[in-house]
Amino acid sequence: MEDGVDHLAFERNKAQFDVEDMKIIWAGSRQDFELSDRISRLVASDPAFRKDDRTTLDRKELFKNTLRKAAYAWKRINELRLNEQEAYKLRSFVDQPAFTDLHWGMFVPAIQGQGTDEQQQKWLPLAYRMQIIGCYAQTELGHGSNVQGLETTATFDPKTDEFVIHSPTLTSSKWWPGGLGKISTHAVAYARLIIGGEDHGVHGFIVQLRSLDDHLPLPGITIGDIGMKFGNAAYNTMDNGVLRFDHVRIPRNQMLMRVSQVTREGKYVSSNVPRQLVYGTMVNVRQKIVADASVALSRAVCIATRYSAVRRQFGSHNGGLETQVIDYKTQQARLFPLLASAYAFRFVGGWLKWLYMDVTERLQANDFSTLPEAHACTAGLKSLTTTATADGIEECRKLCGGHGYLCSSGLPELFAVYVPACTYEGDNVVLLLQVARHLMKTVSQLGSGNKPVGTTAYMARVEQLMQYHSDVEKAEDWLKPNVVLEAFEARASRMSVACAQNLSKFANPEEGFQELAADLVDAAVAHCQLIVVSKFIEKLQQDIPGKGVKKQLEVLCSIYALFLLHKHLGDFLSTGCINPKQGSLASEQLRNLYSQVRPNAIALVDAFNYTDHYLGSILGRYDGNVYPKLYEEAWKDPLNDSVVPDGFKEYIQPMLKQQLRNARL
Ligand SMILES: CCCCCCCC/C=C\CCCCCCCCCCCCCCCC(=O)SCCNC(=O)CCNC(=O)[C@H](O)C(C)(C)COP(=O)(O)OP(=O)(O)OC[C@H]1O[C@@H](n2cnc3c(N)ncnc32)[C@H](O)[C@@H]1OP(=O)(O)O
Ligand SMILES: Cc1cc2nc3c(=O)[nH]c(=O)nc-3n(C[C@H](O)[C@H](O)[C@H](O)COP(=O)(O)OP(=O)(O)OC[C@H]3O[C@@H](n4cnc5c(N)ncnc54)[C@H](O)[C@@H]3O)c2cc1C
């Protein structure tokens, strides 16, 4: 049996575009590419960042191993004087969730976004030097999605000028915060502010949890890890925690006071900023999660594509080679839309980062006008991309057949570590309902002269879109960006308008919203898919250098859009945007596009520029040398340390002997 090396070299030679130029497009710029390339090699070449043994460690060893890596990473960041972007990349390539994610990803941003200048000056230098380690303690045992339902209380005591933080019920126990369980010294904890018996709703407070001397919990604090989670290693490197407060006192100036303040006299004062800024950290992280979705999906797609070119099954004639499974049309129809989605999410992630930076600058200048749009986009795209990525990783596992189920394929752990992204930072359905509220508000204001802006701007043409019928006559018509865009706009606006019309039949709008929730979620998905398609099309309107690169991206863009059209054909037909014949023409075009991707598939995944260390997959090895390495790896399993396993003599041998004795009787 030959190895796979020649297959992938041959595949690479087939590419019709310059893969080095595509690497730059994927990375965002030459500078980003060089940075990413340098840091990924740095991590891959350092034995301290070895990760192939992770799934064989028990929880305690795994956690200790995470602490060692985190401390070593921090040491290297300082020694090499890495800047913020480089440190972030290093974290990404180390590829192991840790308390540091919450410290840098949520604790620090919460203070930056919700703290006053004075509070920032006090706390941020300590956090930046990691002299304190923080987490984001919002979710409780009883409430996660419903933030307004949180039960922890922060009662102002005017006598001592302190807040008393308390967990009044079991369900008010903080439950889930990452980094809380074993490591964090501090938390930004969310609690109901009570002054003189009056409840002012949920606010953030900086609370010290553990002693900076001996790391023991401070008086009144009960704290621990919530236990093993899904998967072997996966997210078990993280100490998601439980926390109860028993009348814990903190100084008044530890309430984050940018949005509202409590004076020495106990007066509650609201600033001139929307209260939703208390939710600002979540907007920030949702944007990061969207950017990360393309990374996780592209990893899985890279593994499944390379392995599909190495793997052969059936089709041998006269003793010749069997067919590469990537040549089966069904394999292509499952794999290539995921490849296209990885590119689509990459570009929409880049755009969302820009949108987030824009809204942040505006907020600093007290311009809050784009906050609802930023909230709707981050919530909707977080939901859309994480759902598609989690499903896509699982599909990639199936695309790799039996070997995909082995941990050494990298796919089971990738799925297990990724799938909670559908839940954390907002359950995906709950977030789509937020988008739906935004859409219903937009539709209700259409007649009022209030022009829809940003990603809902297409709604301004609602009358025209309600009349729209696609004029596609032949399969190639579906390659025209405007044709695709109009069909997606018409479908999204008609689904929103239909929901708004149905809602208007209810005397109580909230009751209507609950009753129509499933349709509202579908309308939100249609709107979010339109955003992704339109940002991909916008990307293609930019200058894209490199031999054949633009052509490949055009093919991928068409695949992404037509795959969605095919998958949601019911929406497009039932809203009357297209007719059944046009639906069939889209499927015909999709098949042509798959054939165009086929010779370029390996080069398109090479453009992600992942090291073998980062991929962590025998099936996805760059050299395609799968079988010898799989065979070699099996012998490394701890179960193969001895020929006769522990427990055999104790349990199985007596059973066998008994059977033997019975047989002789
Ligand atoms: C081992 C190696 C280590 C290496 C170490 C290296 C060293 C380190 C170096 C560098 C490291 C860098 C690492 C960085 C890594 C960063 C990655 C970060 C990863 C983090 C992982 C994430 C973990 C998960 C964390 C969490 O889950 S935190 C908890 C999140 N919780 C939620 O999301 C709850 C969801 N619920 C809600 O958001 C809300 O409650 C709701 C659903 C929106 C409902 O709110 P409410 O009841 O108030 O409802 P409404 O009435 O519907 O809304 C009122 C109005 O408010 C508007 N609204 C709502 N939300 C927002 C918002 N977020 N922003 C703006 N506006 C909002 C809404 O639209 C309404 O408006 P209106 O005009 O209609 O009134
Ligand atoms: C790995 C992981 C890490 C986490 N890290 C943190 C952290 O660092 N800090 C922190 O504070 N929290 C953290 N969380 C908590 C997380 O943010 C919440 O679990 C998440 O927001 C979902 O909330 P929930 O658990 O209350 O789900 P629920 O809201 O109870 O969801 C249960 C089901 O009910 C449905 N549902 C709920 N409300 C509605 C509605 N209005 N309409 C329709 N359906 C609805 C949901 O769709 C879901 O199917 C983490 C969670 C996980 C899994």
UniProtKB/TrEMBL annotation:
Keywords: FAD, Fatty acid metabolism, Flavoprotein, Lipid metabolism, Oxidoreductase, Peroxisome. The keyword Lipid metabolism applies. Its cofactor is FAD. Residues 279-440 form the Acyl-CoA oxidase C-alpha1 domain. The active site is at E425. Its main location: other. Residues 481-657 form the Acyl-CoA oxidase C-terminal domain. It holds the Pfam family Acyl-CoA_ox_N. FAD binds at T139, G178. GO terms for molecular function: acyl-CoA oxidase activity; FAD binding; fatty acid binding. Residues 18-133 form the Acyl-coenzyme A oxidase N-terminal domain. GO terms for cellular component: peroxisome. It comes from the Eukaryota. InterPro entries: ACOX_C_alpha1 (IPR055060), Acyl-CoA_ox_N (IPR029320), Acyl-CoA_Oxase/DH_mid-dom_sf (IPR046373), Acyl-CoA_oxidase (IPR012258), Acyl-CoA_oxidase_C (IPR002655), AcylCo_DH-like_C (IPR036250), AcylCoA_DH/ox_N_sf (IPR037069), AcylCoA_DH/oxidase_NM_dom_sf (IPR009100). Belongs to the acyl-CoA oxidase family. This is Acyl-coenzyme A oxidase.
